[in-house]
Amino acid sequence: MDKSELRKLIRERKRGFTEEELEKMSIPIICKLLGNPAVINAKTVLMYSSLPDEVNTSGAIKKLKERGKTVLLPRVIDEGNMEVTVYENPSCLTVGHYSIKEAKGETFTKYNEIDVAVIPGMSFDKHCNRLGRGKGYYDRLLAKLPKTYKIGICFDFQKLEEIPTDEHDIKMNEII
């Protein structure tokens, strides 16, 4: 299957679950994430504000902030590019492009200080390859973070044996 067919397959799988079921299924994933040594030892963590069909990250964002971490969220700035902003608290969130909650905080440009990046995906494979939604936002952002430890998170039904890749696709260091 090509990438477009795989995205369609995963969307169909996602539609088999209610938002409540996906939220329940998110709990053990977030527990593993918060117990991950890379996350525990990180000072600065790039997270993402989850969409209803993704692993719910709202609790993880809150917990990381409580642990004294600098928490960053991506913000779409134009067609194809994101910047990174500092998350302070839930009231700093605003709905941005694609109905994704984004932090209104200051822009964070010290990419070399980001210890861990937690990345969503339509699918991941056993080689830590990631299949995104097809616009390339994360691949362009992750290209600026070559030394950052990258953790992809997804539901079990999103894992595939193998995903076709292109030269611009950025691999994860691990998948939860």
Written overview of the protein:
With 176 residues, the protein is α/β, with parallel strands linked by helices. It has helices at 3-14, 19-34, 37-41, 58-66, 137-142, and strands at residues 44-46, 70-78, 81-87, 93-95, 101-103, 116-119, 123-125, 130-131, 149-152, 159-160, 174-175. It is built from five helices and eleven strands, in the order αααβαβββββββαβββ. The strands form three sheets. Strands 3-2-1-6-9-11 form a six-stranded mixed β-sheet. A three-stranded mixed β-sheet has the order 8-7-10, with helices on one face. A hairpin with a 2-residue loop joins strand 2 and strand 3. It is globular.
Q: Oligomeric status of the shown chains? A: single chain
Count of DSSP E strands? 11
Number of helices: 5
Beta-strand residue percentage? 15-25%
Distance between the termini: 24 Å
Q: Helix and strand string, N-terminal first?
A: HHHEHEEEEEEEHEEE
**How large, in whole angstroms, is the Cα Rg?**
15 Å
For the biggest β-sheet, the strand order reads 3-2-1-6-9-11
Mean pLDDT: 94
The helix content is 25-40%
Protein structure class: alpha/beta
Low-confidence stretches: none
Q: What sort of overall outline do the alpha carbons produce when their principal axes are compared?
A: globular
Short structural description:
The protein is α/β, with parallel strands linked by helices.
